[in-house]
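Researcher: Here's my situation. A collaborator sent me these components and asked whether they could plausibly form a single complex. I don't have experimental data yet, so a predicted model of the whole assembly would be a useful starting point for our discussion.
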Amino acid sequence: QVQLQESGPGLVKPSQTLSLTCTVSGGSISSDNFYWSWIRQPAGKGLEWIGRVSSTGNSNYNPSLESRVSMSIDTSKNHFSLKLMSVTAADSAVYYCARHDVPGASQSWFDPWGQGTLVTVSS
Amino acid sequence: DTVMTQTPDSLAVSLGERATINCKSSQTVLYTSNNKNCVAWYQQKAGQPPKLLIYWASTRGSGVPDRFRGSGSGTDFSLTISSLQAEDVAVYYCQQYYTTPLTFGGGTKVEI
């Protein structure tokens, strides 16, 4: 059973770059050409899709964040990563990684999800 | 963007009673290749990540109790909990995966 686990700094200073990694266990990140996404949730608010990366490294981002976002995948380490540049307090949120549940489908529902990691942007 | 509008924002239901959550998409989410609607529903309990309940608008995820039922077509979709249990207290979200950016509804908090 595939499991995902986010990791990275819990505190980032304004204007700096937020960097997170999602490690996949219980299966190969490169098998079946799954897509992998990042989703965030500010405290007490709803869910926002940030973007996705394929097992071959193709990526697509939410236009609302596209100018500041970069995603990559490292099949040798079985993880994928998120970088969000020039952060402000508005980027404080729980960040989740999730797998698109249909092999090869760039647009599908998310299952499973990681447990999430809280990132606070503050000086 | 495809906006997913959920109603109500919250509802209180007695144990054993029915709860219905609505979700309206701002445009069609019909995938013509299989004639299915690209809508998923998630349950999020406090301090936990969202859990998949429903996909293709009406297909239950693995292990999801049959008291959870998804329905709808066109731009109007619903999640019904037929007999509310104490463990169903959570926030519920709809999501469209027809087009990017993938978008979620604002959430509906279900309480006893």
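Model: Some features of this prediction you could bring to your collaborator: Chain A has a mean pLDDT of 95. Chain A is about 0% helix and 50% strand.
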